[in-house]
Amino acid sequence: MLTYADKMSIVRQHQNDAPVQTVPLAQALGVSVYHVPNWPDDLSGKIMKSEEHGGSSGYAIFVNQAHHKNRRRFTTAHEIAHYILHKDAIGDGITDDGLYRSRLSNWMEAQANQLAADILMPWNLLNNYIGMGITSVTKLASIFEVSPSAMSIRLGVPAQAEVSPQAEVKPLAAEF
What we know:
Layout: H1 4-13, H2 22-28, E1 31-36, E2 43-49, E3 59-64, H3 69-90, E4 94-97, H4 106-120, H5 123-131, H6 137-144, H7 148-155
Helix pairs in contact: 3-4, 6-7
């Protein structure tokens, strides 16, 4: 069984280039990923223990196929975060709606959102791109294949803003 440190080491191994590839990351953690057609628009994703569909860990992530690619990537990263942080709380499944709300506490959902952002937009890669002069939130969002909204939240600036190329961007709180 993988420890938290083992899981985070696997995450870091998949953060060498942008965009971070979420499906190979999930597979490296032993979690299968499926894109599901015909789900209601307000259902983003689900992680569950599944003998039939689970990867080597026994867990599977299901993502709404109709959602935009960037949203599917964030949903996959969010469900990976639940696997890393809240595996014992998954039980027969955690289903997240369009606002990434589930039966879990708001605190657990906030943790999953933060780790999803850490997975998709690691500070070292962001700082590399900003240091190369790519300072537009929209351009960075495109490179990292996340929404401009997600990138602006990550950087703590408005979506239409430019990030100063002289300032190294740092996390507001410790990363997981």
